[in-house]
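During the reporting period the student researcher (J.K.) took over the structure-prediction task from the postdoctoral fellow and processed the backlog of single-chain submissions. One of the processed entries is reproduced below for the supervisory committee.
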Amino acid sequence: MGRTGGSGYIGGDALYELMQKHSSEYEVSCLVRDSDKGAQIASRWANIRLVYGDLDNADVLEQEAKRADVVLHFAHADHEGAAVALTKGLTAHSPEKPGYIIHTSGTAILVFADMERQIYGEASSKVYNDWDGIEEVTSLPDFALHRNVDKVILAAGSEDSTVRTAIVCPPTIYGRGRGPVNQRSIQVPELARSTFEKKHGIQVGAGKAYWTNVHVHDLSDVYLKLVEAAVAGGGGATWGKEGYYFAENGEHVWGDISKAVAEQAHKQGFIPSAEVKTLPDAEIEEVTKFGTILWGTNSRCKAVRARKVLGWVPTGESIEDDMPKTVAHEAELRGLVQHHAAKVAG
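J.K. obtained the following structure tokens:
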């Protein structure tokens, strides 16, 4: 079993889940860029075979995919060359024993309409569905984020009987990861960091945009169930042109999340008040690159397929209930906890 992105947030947590359940059964290899990350993975799981390289090493990726029964690709949703190399390597398998690839996309693929109109912070009623609306989901405009790599994976699963594909498409992910290296998500932690920096809460436009969300532990359970299905010869999972899985357990409005972050940052003593201010789009981008997209677009979907065919039942706490821990962890990463303790102590 081969993996890219094992040191990342999504891949690291999924690796933890996989090794907790199947460390003695599966032979696992991980692509890592450097010896520091390799050492961190090896210190946790000595039986993982480390492969050194990066996503531009097409020959390495192709060879590793040839020898793997299942490839989990977490490392980059926009690196077309890596997807091509991995799927090419899997074609060395046979129709009787096909190779499997489980690729990580992201529901930023759904924000193309807002980006095209350059309208941020307003609500949209459009909700995508990976069951009844699967054809729409797998034929989004070519200019949509991540679409270039989605097309490579979908084509490989549709055109070659030796390759079976699945795409997992997570939305806003929250919760502290359990992987050996990166345990931090992006959207909410970045909002917390920006709130610390500005000394007040921030939002994009009217703060009315919607995204769906999922706890990282629940997301890892989707990967685990797909891996188990692949090892079982496909199981009851959907593969190929309809093998597309949203992973969500609810949705939020970004203005509400801005308020929740500010309230926790104030309650924990990191900002003077819980006030939330709307910043101009240009200032949002100065604070966090792509902030207008992260907190101002709409990305709404329903994860029907994982529930139907995998029996996926998410159980993680809500994004709101996790907020105190997210803010505290971000403050710790920024060195604010020690500073705040010293200030209180006088």
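The committee noted the following: The mean pLDDT is 95.
J.K. will present the remaining backlog at the next meeting.
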